[in-house]
Fold:
Amino acid sequence: MGSSVSKVPAQVTGTLNTTSSSESLDEKGFVRPRSSTSSAAGSLPLATDGSISLSNVDAWESAAAADPKIQLARTILAHTNIKSTLTSRPAGVAIPHVFNHELEFKAGPVTNQKSSGRCWLFATTNVIRHEVMKKLKLKEFQLSQSYLFFWDKLNKSNYYLELSIENADLPVDDRLVNFLADDLISDGGQWDMVVNLLETYGLVPQPIYPESFHSSASSPINNLLKMKLREHALTLRALSSSLKADPAVSPESAISTLRAKKEELMQEVYTIMSATLGVPPKPDAPFTWEYYTEDGKYAKWEGTPLQFYKAFTTKFSPAESFSLINDPRNEYGKLYTVDKLGNIWGGRPVLYVNTEIDDLKQAIVRSIKAGQPVFFGCDVGQFSDTGKDVGIMDTDYFEYEQAFNITLGLTKAQRLQTNESAMTHAMVISAVHVDEKTGRPVRFKVENSWGEDSGVHGYNVMSDKWFDQFVFQVVVHKSLATKEHVKIFESGERVVLPAWDPMGALA
Structure:
């Protein structure tokens, strides 16, 4: 899901949910303080000024040089990548790409977001295309991810400028103003944001609005748009200041004048986007799509993007689906949102029902058994190898602790608290393997959007342990959710997290 291109996962620096024998966890997964005074409390540092002294280095080297395992690690790891070298063969063998509950209908082809952060749009369209392909009897099919990308980027630009008007009285170096200006039009997004796009603009097949160079490689236009939008924000702030200094201008008139100016500035944004991505179909403008069915017969579909969207989302409507999250920092059984997070101004807010991790798993099992693929958000770069013919997401797969004589002890809650982890990528779950004795899921089949050369023909296998630690979000249709979760979602009583909260990360 986000600001950086989610095509390339970050270097694996993840942590496992372990604690030392003298530590225990509280109900939210945080380490409780030791009750007794540490034996190290009275020890003195070698460098009393807080710097690293040569005495420190000598002591550290002496300890490392005396350890044969560290010496072996030095011999090997200076010449190889730790991610490919320190892998566990038994762990890889123990997690096969085989599942006992799988979607009967196989959609294709494997998609590729290339050098862009559009994983959430690919995950969404990969979910929706199942119904399109089944109804129209298609062998292969893709919806236009670029169509949604265009309208999302245009609306995010408008959203940022509206926030600039709303917060014009705050200092330009205020934390909120600074945060909003940092990654103002990220490629990434959240489930409710894509629902806004679908309900407003609909969908089209990829041949109607195909990929462009800059939809597949978004950095150049992102950099240009950000530069202009930050300039536009300062223009609106200056105008707001002058309007408020004039006693003859009412607050209503000031807002009207500012929005008129904003629309003038948005012309430049639209010009850049339409030149680099192409002019998209209007949501209410009819188009004709001609295609071949799986048996080679000619067919065509005629209608508008909104009609196309409504025609092929009748069974599990995106608008009737919502996010379950597992955020152990915050109280379960409540509805959460993130301040200032959205794409369409005045649209559906980003909403999460926070609950136990097992609830997310059971929602997946129910969905797969009902024939519905599942959109989910995770921290993909942690303890995963999505390389060709590997495709393993498993906390037991990398043996960093043994190689370096370390313990990786952060909990899931602590990773969120310290910026070690967040939702970085959205994908689709299309199968699950359930233990026949316990009824509990033990592994999941993950459809990615990094092309055929990622994982096993574009698919990964995710262990139950990895799910516990690095999956944060699962989207479920109301008909497949528990009554309790639906009631929480529909209550509207939400806890507002600050704009910079990690739950605001965009996949």
About this structure: Residues 227 and 288 are 38 Å apart (CA to CA). The longest helix spans residues 251-277. The first strand starts at residue 101 and ends at 102. Confidence is low (pLDDT under 50) at residues 3-15, 18-23, 27-38.
